[in-house]
Design goal:
The protein is mainly beta. The chain contains two helices and twelve strands. The strands form two sheets. It has a six-stranded mixed sheet, with no helix packed on it. Strands 2-12-11-8-4-5 form a six-stranded antiparallel sheet. The termini are far apart.
């Protein structure tokens, strides 16, 4: 049974799920019907070192760079509308392949062309991140974003981080202005 988390609630992944190595990270949302349906949200992953920065630009996984070193993180297909039920975008993570100098992986969502379309996360409903055991398809935990993000164009939804030999999950729900470029730059990606 999946654990429903609140912002900032840290919980273990691998200690309570021995042998867990392969994750499906699903992200979903619905466009506010009053604001039209031309929303293109994109999911990304940033593999971060102890300084909270990428080691190099290859640690930024997104629709134009879908596979990290050693196939540790792989981005799914780019859903350009968000229509339909279930996850709108997803990433696969193999914890056993994460390099030892990567301490955490931040999962983010940004609005493509937010500036041209005058869009922000205040126009998006039901945003969530969920962690699924990729081998059994069992949903382990879920975080539903409930904050009003009426000016933000990028959101860090959650992070998987290493503590010793164990992995944990933290729902973050932190919004940023400036879309993907500002977010990527903040994590040390050369834009």
């Amino acid at each position: 049974m999946a654990v429903s988390l609140v912002k900032g609630q840290r919980t273990d992944l691998t200690k309570s799920n021995p042998g867990l190595t392969r994750l499906h990270v699903g992200l979903g949302w619905d466009a506010n019907p009053m604001d039209g349906n031309e929303f293109d949200l994109d999911a990304q992953a940033f593999l971060l070192n102890s300084d909270g920065k990428v080691r190099n630009d290859d640690d930024f996984i997104f629709y134009n760079h879908k596979i990290s070193e050693n196939d540790a993180v792989i981005a799914g297909e780019d859903n350009r509308t968000g229509n339909g039920d279930g996850d709108d975008e997803s990433l696969k993570v193999d914890l056993s392949k994460i390099p030892t100098d990567v301490n955490k992986i931040d999962f983010t969502v940004t609005i493509d062309q937010y500036d041209v379309r005058h869009q922000n996360f205040g126009m998006v409903n039901n945003a969530y991140i969920r962690i699924v055991n990729d081998e059994t398809n069992e949903e382990l935990m879920r975080y539903d974003l409930s904050e009003d993000a009426s000016i933000e164009t990028a959101i860090v939804m959650g992070e998987v981080y290493r503590t010793g030999n164990e992995w944990k999950f933290l729902p973050v729900g932190a919004g940023y202005q400036g879309g993907l470029a500002a977010l990527a730059s903040g994590f040390g990606v050369n834009i």
